């Protein structure tokens, strides 16, 4: 995603004013949509801070120079799925590779440290027809009090690697947690 525009409730148009960056979204990483275009917010709202330079990536952080400040965040945590109360979502179907999976997540979410006792992420593995694969139930993959980019996804002693070649989807359940990504364990 690239932030170039931001929607404003003050404009009657379908899209937001121009800010210097734009959100581009894609469900598959191939076909991209640009949902917002239009009025230059910097002309309409001069109090909005302006990015004078492009962000930099240094030692795994994406950094934004703002005047005399250097603001940033981890480059692998720019966007996330989060839920304050119980939430759930599924990935699209994919062919499971012969690798272990790692989860980049924070449970509890950084903005909810007080929810430590309630925060969780659980992951189930479903087959093509949305039925849970025995042994890969969500209760067997419970993640609590973790905040790192390399949490192994395990169902007891089982790994999704055992499902290599099968068409599956992951079903996530979460509360007071952020999920940033799932990736393959590097060989």
Top keywords for this entry?
mainly beta; 187 residues; disordered N terminus; five-stranded antiparallel β-sheet
What would you say this structure looks like, in words?
The protein is mainly β and 187 residues long. The protein is built from one helix and 18 strands. It has one helix at residues 41-44; strands at 4-5, 18-21, 24-25, 33-34, 56-58, 61-66, 69-74, 81-83, 87-90, 94-95, 101-107, 120-127, 142-143, 146-152, 154-155, 158-159, 167-175, 177-184. Strands 9, 10, 12, 13 and 17 form a five-stranded antiparallel beta sheet that branches. It has a four-stranded antiparallel beta sheet with strand order 8-18-11-14, with no helix packed on it. A three-stranded antiparallel beta sheet has the order 5-6-7, with no helix packed on it. Strand 3 (24-25) and strand 4 form a beta hairpin. The longest helix is centred in the N-terminal third of the chain and has 4 residues, at 41-44. It starts with a strand and ends with a strand. Mean pLDDT is 81; it is low at 1-6 and 16-20.
